[in-house]
Amino acid sequence: MRETLITNADHILTMDDARLELRGADVLLRGGQIAAVGRGLEAGAGAHVLDAAGCVVTPGLVNTHHHLYQTLTRAVPGGQDALLFGWLKTLYPIWARFGPEEVFTSAQVGLMELALSGCTMTSDHLYLYPNGARLDDTIDAAREVGLRFHPTRGAMSIGESDGGLPPDSLVEREEAILEDCIRVIDAHHDAGEGAMLRVGVAPCSPFSVSRELMRDAALLARDKGVMLHTHLAENDEDIAYSLEQFGCRPGQYAEELGWTGADVWHAHCVKLDGREIDLFARTKTGVAHCPCSNCRLGSGIAPVRAMRDAGVPVGLGVDGSASNDAGNLAAEARQAMLLQRVARGADAMSAREALEIATRGGAEVLGRSDCGRIAPGKRADIAVWDVSGIESAGSWDPAALLLAGPAKVRDLFVEGRQIVENGQFPHLDAGKIIARQNALARALMEQ
Fold this sequence. Notes:
The protein is α/β, with parallel strands linked by helices. It folds into two domains: 4-60 and 373-420, Urease, subunit C, domain 1 (Roll); 61-365, Metal-dependent hydrolases (TIM Barrel, Alpha-Beta Barrel). It has helices spanning 84-95, 100-116, 135-145, 174-188, 211-224, 236-246, 250-256, 274-283, 291-296, 304-310, 329-344, 351-365, 430-446; strands at 4-13, 21-30, 33-38, 48-51, 55-59, 61-63, 119-126, 148-155, 200-203, 228-232, 264-268, 286-289, 314-316, 382-386, 411-414, 417-420. The strands form three sheets. Strands 1, 2, 3, 4, 5, 14, 15 and 16 form an eight-stranded mixed β-sheet that branches. It is globular and about 65 Å long. The protein starts with a strand and ends with a helix. The mean pLDDT is 96.
């Protein structure tokens, strides 16, 4: 891999330990890492030199919660105006008709959309496997697109006939779930520095798996040295279910089953109370905050300010495109900032803090101290934002990207490889992939 010199950037927001910001500076990428940051840097013969004049350079954004398969079911009638449980009831029968091609293609599209929004690393929570689909289908898609990928082997084991939400056709035997978790971890997980692929274990939610599976999944994950993920405390229905079925709040349920710690992150957490926030802070349990999806489903505003102030690790997630309808992580960061201001006042969260949550914060939630910041020795995951266009015209502070800046990147590097070039994918036929996605969606609608 040849060197790349990103030169003459108007602003570089490093998100390093000192939160250093540089003007008129350069970043040198070598061997998948950041080799140097500063002014007047030089590259070796044959290096790729990228002129970043008129641009802001940031670490690549990090997405801590997604359901990539849902990219095939955006804006579905019947689910557009429903709360979480009703929305799930509408979508489950459609998802039951998916197969490997639907899962692969929707993952391709979702990953490409994330990349255009500046995302270099994403998790994914795949918890249903109809008609032969496997987690491997999303892994194949990520390798083609080129993003750093943290897929999680999700699962549902309690169907409608046993009092659960999903139809029986979408649930699996718990023994088979654990066996496949072992298979995908052994086949794909890379625990090394700079890993492009790490696998997690992720039962869907407390209302779709048993207490025993939650406990066994935690034991398995720790035996294998991988992270744990699930949905938790998403809305009032979620809290009511926990109180009725388990006799406790979600935080206590998680703690009793071993679902707290630095190797655990929970999606949403909109309804955590003060005691649960203290628990997460004390145990360094992470949270994937999904502001747009929470708004779309009417779930509420997560107490992110209180979480951050207490020391809870917080990252951002776009969530599935069936409950968000978009997979734009830059837009998610702006929404996170605005919602905290709605809830707590105009000084509740700055544009720079929201960007920090979207970069460094997300990397920390996923256990990736090697990513999420621009500093020598960190991975070469870089987003280049063109601020010379109409979105930033008249801005006094172009580095405040989330106040007046583009929602799409000009250039994107993952592990030093250029994934997006001038807003395009040089290694993919985007038009062909989009056409295939739309054809699959039409086929589902006709069924």
